[in-house]
Write a structure and sequence with these properties.
By secondary structure, the protein is α+β, with helices and mostly antiparallel strands. Helices cover 29% and strands 34% of the residues. It has a single domain, classed as Roll (Nuclear Transport Factor 2, Chain: A). A six-stranded mixed β-sheet has the order 2-1-6-5-4-3.
Length: 159
């Protein structure tokens, strides 16, 4: 299936918002479901990159600095993608992701953006419990040479 034709950023998005959508929705999902880091490798700023895991906990003392570098994130991302793709899904996981995940707020100030990515859905898995998608992740992006790149994120925040 050609997802590029089927899934596009919202038509009311500005050019910058559309470019951010390509990074945080389109390429992210295609890469993860295809176990292909190379699709997103250029979507990050390596220097100073970090990631915080909110663990879906309302207790902020449970949040932790899980990724101290892009390399540590890449290693975990690849492992998660491999494990995810071993499952037998009852509905195409890309369809689930595209239909249940939205950028609910994009705040751009100059060449910096704060983006809220909200997950609302579930993957139905053969002979397993469903994998529930019910969290928000916040991404900080910087525009570099006309391209939006991820500098950090705080993921798995409770709604």
């Amino acid at each position: 299936m050609n997802y590029k034709d089927k899934y596009q950023p919202p038509s009311n998005y500005s050019k910058d918002e559309q470019l951010i959508w390509q990074v945080l929705i389109y390429r992210d999902f295609i890469a993860f479901c295809n176990q292909d880091w190379t699709i997103i490798a250029n979507d990050f700023i390596e220097k100073g990159f970090f990631g915080i895991d909110g663990k879906k906990s309302t207790n902020k003392n449970n949040w932790c600095l899980t990724y101290d570098s892009l390399q540590s994130y890449k290693t975990d991302w690849i492992n998660q993608s491999k494990e995810f793709n071993k499952k037998t899904f009852l509905i195409d996981p890309l369809e689930v992701l595209f239909n249940t995940t939205k950028l609910t707020k994009i705040e751009i100030k100059g060449d910096l953006a704060l983006v809220h990515k909200e997950f609302n859905g579930a993957f139905r898995v053969k002979d397993e419990d469903s994998i529930v998608l019910d969290w928000i992740s916040l991404f900080v992006l910087r525009k570099v040479n006309g391209n939006w790149k991820i500098t950090s994120f705080t993921g798995y925040l409770p709604k």
